[in-house]
Amino acid sequence: MSTQNSETRGFQSEVKQLLHLMIHSLYSNKEIFLRELISNASDAADKLRFKALETPALYENDADLGVRVSINKEQGTLIIADNGIGMTRDEVIENLGTIAKSGTKSFLDSIGSDQAKDSQLIGQFGVGFYSSFIVADKVTVITRAAGCEADQAVMWESAGEGEYTISDAHKKQRGTEIILHIREEDKEFLDEWRVRSVISKYSDHISLSVEIQTQENDEIKWEKVNKAQALWTRSKSEISDEEYKEFYKHIAHDFEDPLSWSHNRVEGKQEYTSLLYIPAKAPWDLWNRDHQHGLKLYVQRVFIMDEAQQFMPNYLRFVKGLIDSNDLPLNVSREILQDSKITQNLRNACTKRVLQMLDKLAKDNKEQYQQFWNEFGLVLKEGTGEDFANKDAIVKLLRFASTQAGSDAQTVSIEDYLARMPETQDKIYYITADSYVAAKNSPHLELFRKKGLEVLLLSDRIDEWMMGHLAEFEGKQFLSVSKADESLEKLADNEENEQQKEADKALQPFIEKVSSYLGEQVKAVKLTHRLTDTPAVVTTEADQMTTQMAKLLASAGQKAPEVKYTFEINPEHALVKHVAALQDETVTQQWIDLLFEQALLAEKGTLADPHAFIQRMNQLLLSH
C-alpha cells in the first residue's frame, strides 16, 4: 500500500468534543464498538447489493459479501474489513470528519456531566463509528468505493486528538478496512475468544457472514462466527426474545431494548414478511420534518432501500423495522412505490399492525404504554387528522390529563372517561389552553366542578388542531367548555329558581349598558350561570375559531381572523352587583373595561395593552 496527496484536517468542534468524551470517559460496556463497526459493514454490503441491481459490474466478480475480523497481537491491532460499497475521498470526509451524517451535536447537547459515562446514548444518535475510540488510541481506515480503480483508494487516520489525516492509497479489493490500535488497558479485545463472544452476542442475527481469522500449522483460515441467516426469514418459534432485541438494536442503531415488536408472515394474494418495532425512546431528530424515516425494504431478501417512507404513515415515523415483499420487482424504484397498489396494501397492513401492537401494549402493560406515550404521544396525535380510516383506533390510544386525574400526567384514555360519565351526560367535555395550569384553573371549569363532571385538560400545541378533527367518539360529541353552547346553558340553568330569575331580570338594563359601551369589541353580552367564583368570562360560538387555534395560526406565521367574543357576566358575583349599582358613569365604564380585560386575560393569556389595564386597575383600587 502506498499513500500520497496527504492532508491534515481538523474535525468539526462537535466531533472534537465527542472524541474527548470517548477517550477520557469510562464506559460500562466497551464491547459495543465492535457491534457498531460490524453493523456499519452490514449496511455497506446492503448498499452494494442495491446498487448492483442496476450496475452488476460493481461486484467486480466478487458477489460473496461478508465481514472479516483479524487480530494481530504483535502489532496490537484489531482489523474489521468488509467488501461492501466502500467510500470515495469526499464521502470519507463527509462521513468521518463532520457531523453531517451523525447527529453528534444533538448527542452532545443531550448529555450533561452526570450522563457522560453512559454509553447507552451513543447509538441513539448514530455515532457508532466514533465508538472505536473507546478502545483504540489510533484508528486507521482504508477504503475503496466499488467501481473505482485500485489506486483511487483513500486512507483516513486519527488519534482522536482533534484532527485527522487523509491521503490517497492503493487497495486491490473494494470495501472498507478499519484498523484499531488497541489501548494497553483494553488488550482483552485482542483475545480471539473475547472477540468471538462479542460477535456471537451482537451479530448472530445479521444476514452478512462474519468470519474470524484462525491459524493452524502456519495455515491461515477464515471461520464463520455467526449464523448469517436473515432473522426475519426464520420461524418465530426459533427466535428468542434476546435475538429479536439484538436485531432491533442492529437496524435501529439503538442501545435500548424495544418496548414491543411484531413479526408477521403473510401468504396468499400477497406474500410478505414484516418485522416492526416500537422503540423505548424517541430519537433526537423526531421533530425534524425533513429527516428521512421509514422501514428497510427488502424484495425476496435482497436489500432495496433504507427508510422507505411509503410503508408507514408520517404519524408512525418512530416505528423501526423492515418489510420483505415477494410481489415487488427487484428493480423497484421510488416512482413504482408511490404508484403501486401493492405498496398501498402493504402500508395499510403495516399501519393496522402497529396500531394493534400499541393497543395490546396499552391493555397488557399500562406502565410501558405510559412510557411510550410520554415519548411519542405528540406524534401519535397527528394521526387523528392524517388517517381517517384508523381514526377510532388512534383515539383509543390517546391519553389526556383531566380534572379527575388531578395531575398534569396524561394518563386518562377516552374509554376511561366514558366509563366514568353519568348516564345523563351526552357529551365529552374538554378545554384547550397554553399550559396544564392554565387549563386546570380556567374559569370555564367552575360549573363542571360544581356539578362533579370530568373535563379533559389539553395543553399541547397540537391539541387544538387535533380536536378540529375529532367530532365524536362512539356516539358522544366532543365539546369545548369555552364555547357558547345551548347544552351548557341548560346545564347551568337547571337549578335556577324564581328569585334568581327576578334578579337576572333586574340586571338586564346593566347588560344593555355594557353591550352599548363595548359595541364592536364584542359579539354579544349576556348573563350566565356557568360561573361560581369569577365575575365574567369570554366565549366563542360553536362555529367560530377558538383562541387556541388563532394562536396556533399566528405561531405558524399565518394571519388568523380576529376572534370576536361573547362577554358572559355572572349575575351572582358581588363585584358585578357592585358595578351594576354604581351611579357614576365614568367609573362604571372603567369597571366594565376592567372586567372585560380580566376575562380576555384569562382566555388569551395576553392583552393588547397590558399597561393600560394595570393603570386602570390601580386607579380603581385607589378610588376604593
Outline the structure in words.
Helix 8 (341-364) packs across helix 9 and helix 21 crosses helix 22 (610-622). The chain is α+β, with helices and mostly antiparallel strands and 624 residues long. The chain has four domains: 4-224, Histidine kinase-like ATPase, C-terminal domain (Heat Shock Protein 90, 2-Layer Sandwich); 231-374, Ribosomal Protein S5, domain 2 (2-Layer Sandwich), CATH 3.30.230.80; 399-481, Rossmann fold, CATH 3.40.50; 484-624, Four Helix Bundle (Hemerythrin (Met), subunit A) (Up-down Bundle). The chain is elongated and about 110 Å long. It contains 22 helices and 23 strands. The model is unreliable at 99-105 and 113-126 (pLDDT under 50). The strands form four sheets. The chain has a nine-stranded mixed sheet.
Number of domain units: 4
Spatial order of the strands forming the largest sheet = 1-6-5-4-7-3-2-8-9
Structural class: alpha+beta
Number of helical regions = 22
Largest sheet, in brief, is: 9 strands, mixed
Radius of gyration: 32 Å
Just name the CATH architecture of the largest domain. Answer: 2-Layer Sandwich
**Any low-confidence stretches, pLDDT <50, length ≥5?**
99-105, 113-126
- The overall strand count is 23
